[in-house]
Amino acid sequence: MSEIIGYARVSSTGQSYEVQKEKLEASGCTKVFREKRSGTQAATRQELQRALEYVREGDTFVATRLDRVARSLSDLLNIANRLKGKGVALRVLDQNIDTSNSEGRLQFHLLGAFAEFENEIRRERQADGIAKAQSKGVRFGRKAALSEEQRATIRRLREEEGFTVPQLMERFSVGRTTIYRALGVNT
User: What's domain 4-119's architecture?
Assistant: First the structure.
């Protein structure tokens, strides 16, 4: 007996499964796999992999949107091919895609290509924004544990007064790696 299997994914803690769950249940899903995970790599999403293992020939795999299943066209095509190889149809509710027919397969490929294009544009804009911010002196990442003056003091104490690494760690309240970086030693 064939089943309708749902997959729901949210990418951050502030998002809720509820809207996806309601749509999936309304479409007849008897089982819903769900996870809270970024969508960049399908192979790292355990619930998606479990869902893909679970489906059998004649089943239908349902998601609310293509971007809930994959973020890249190559991932999307791999998943679609895996489902097709198992004799499983893919249905995407919000984009009205159903790969059990030729029109649905065409629409699937077109929307997948547009979704990947949109992600690439977003990445380019983000990279441009980061580059612009850096050119204005904005620094990203964690604040440096030591100032340049403190690093110079560490080098002086080590060379002139023979301080050991543990003594320097205690004096400056930092870890071993930070001291080695200040000394210019590769760890």
Answer: 3-Layer(aba) Sandwich (3.40)
